[in-house]
Specification:
475 residues; alpha+beta; Uridine Diphospho-n-acetylenolpyruvylglucosamine Reductase, domain 3; Alpha-Beta Plaits; five-stranded antiparallel beta sheet; four-stranded mixed beta sheet; 17 helices; 18 strands
Length: 475
């Protein structure tokens, strides 16, 4: 686009969206041009902040007529650079943060309808006020938005019981590349009119359409919970403990996270007030959460105790404890959630958000750790995370004293390639919950199934023939 055409577009955008809805101010743009991890920084022609679906649709139509690329953005808390523009300066950022209304919470029907800019923590609080809860939580709940969660098919610590966003979205509203509106907000228990089109948009990272609202599944509020911490001698034993917990607790098992001793030690060094939940040394640790509604609250305490007694009897745990207060329960979860910053304090690392078939995860970690550490001496490979759904965050920490950028560009890149090759060979995925974005786009092209990739690209061409929606991401 030449200078005259750009000026014409900017004038039209400003007239359409007004002072609150359009800006080219460098100071206003700057915080949103770098991704959350600080890996990618781009430039933008301007930033659009529409206040409604119709305003957003009109703006997308304007962009289509001028062939201006659009980079949609929610809370800018993604992990794969999927909401950051390139450095050409041709694209516009489109934020949904002003579209932040919770349109309805129907407690009886157990669903909430909210706009894309609603922050996850705000939704949690609104649902709680109605005696309900939205069963998806993650570390960035104070900034992550509904639109971003839908677009990346976000997961988190409750996927074990409730699934990712794909399982929680009942209805969807989105604006397509030509400015038309896809409206399937009203949920139906049965609807057999062809493809489930909303599922195309969930997880598409803004490359097929821009989510403007969603109808989401709610669950009864939790009356009580028990948070357990157990020390295991191996990840295989931790997996057996998970199966035991699932067998004994059923739907009351809300979360099951694992971390190795290295991760616990890193957090204890990083957080001055943190305390080890258990005495002694344990190769692996399991964090278990059991929950109950009012109907089952009385069963919760005895259930937690029986679970640990049975685990001891079967030799699955060396030591274990149950949080004696909500403060202690939160302290246990703080340890788990502090692993990433504690790692960063140690030094540079490469992170891999991977999954393999659930039953194969212990064997994968036991094979991958020595393989990586032997091929790249001085590195430390660790796996932690959501064992119950086969999603482990597999991080490799650089040798002491390594130059961060140089190591990541050299050995780090080679390590990531090797990890992704191993995951693929084990029948897994190089992206379990963080999306592809621009971080893993080339690796997806290298390792993805050719038939599946062809289908992805065909859908992209059909819905966005000019390639204006989030270019350079996913496919």
């Amino acid at each position: 686009m030449d200078e005259a055409a750009a000026s014409e577009f900017v004038a039209a955008a400003a007239a359409l969206l007004g002072l609150r809805g359009w800006t080219q101010d460098a100071g206003a743009l700057e915080p949103w041009l770098t991704d959350w991890r600080g890996r990618y920084t781009g430039r933008a022609l301007g930033m659009a902040s529409p206040a409604s679906r119709d305003e957003l649709a009109a703006f997308v139509k304007l962009c289509a007529s001028h062939r201006v690329p659009i980079v949609p953005q929610g809370g800018n808390s993604g992990m794969s650079g999927g909401a950051t523009p390139d450095d050409s300066g041709r694209a516009v950022l489109l934020t949904t943060r002003r579209m932040n209304a919770i349109r309805e919470i129907d407690a009886a029907a157990r669903r909430a309808t909210c706009e894309a800019g609603v922050i996850l923590q705000v939704l949690h609080e609104a649902a709680a006020a109605k005696g309900r809860r939205f069963p998806l939580s993650l570390g960035g709940k104070g900034s992550a938005t509904v639109g971003g969660l839908v677009s990346t098919n976000a997961g988190g610590t409750q996927v074990l019981r409730h699934g990712s966003m794909r399982a929680l979205v009942l209805g969807l509203e989105a604006v397509l590349a030509d400015g038309s509106v896809f409206d399937q907000l009203v949920p139906l228990g049965k609807d057999n009119r062809g493809f489930d089109l909303k599922q195309l948009l969930i997880g598409s990272e803004g490359t097929l359409g821009i989510v403007t609202a969603a109808t989401l599944k709610l669950e009864p509020a939790i009356t009580d919970r028990r948070v357990l911490w157990a020390g295991c001698k191996s990840l295989t034993d931790a997996r057996a403990l998970l199966l035991l917990a699932d067998e004994m607790a059923g739907a009351m098992l809300e979360g099951f996270e694992v971390l190795p001793a290295h991760s616990l030690d890193a957090v204890l060094a990083y957080l001055p007030d943190a305390r080890a939940p258990l005495a002694g040394d344990h190769a692996w640790h399991a964090l278990i959460e059991l929950v109950a509604d009012a109907q089952n609250a009385e069963r919760l305490g005895p259930l937690g105790e029986r679970l640990l007694v049975t685990a001891f009897e079967r030799g699955l745990v060396g030591d274990a404890t149950i949080a004696q207060s909500e403060t202690q329960a939160e302290a246990f979860w703080t340890i788990r959630e502090s692993i990433p910053p504690a790692e960063r304090a140690i030094g540079p690392a490469v992170q891999h958000d991977i999954s393999v078939p659930v039953e194969r995860m212990p064997a994968f970690v036991e094979a991958a750790v020595p393989e990586i550490e032997s091929r790249w001496p001085g590195t430390v490979a660790i796996g932690f995370g959501h064992l119950g759904d086969g999603n482990i965050h597999f991080h490799v920490i650089a040798p002491p004293g390594a130059d961060g950028p140089a190591w990541q560009a050299g050995d780090g890149k080679a390590i990531s390639r090797e990890v992704h090759d191993m995951v693929t060979a084990w029948g897994g995925s190089i992206s379990a919950e963080h999306g592809i974005g621009q971080l893993k786009r080339d690796e997806l092209a290298r390792l993805g199934d050719p038939v599946a990739l062809a289908m992805l690209r065909a859908v992209k061409r059909a819905l966005d023939p000019d390639g204006l929606l989030n270019p350079g991401k996913l496919v």
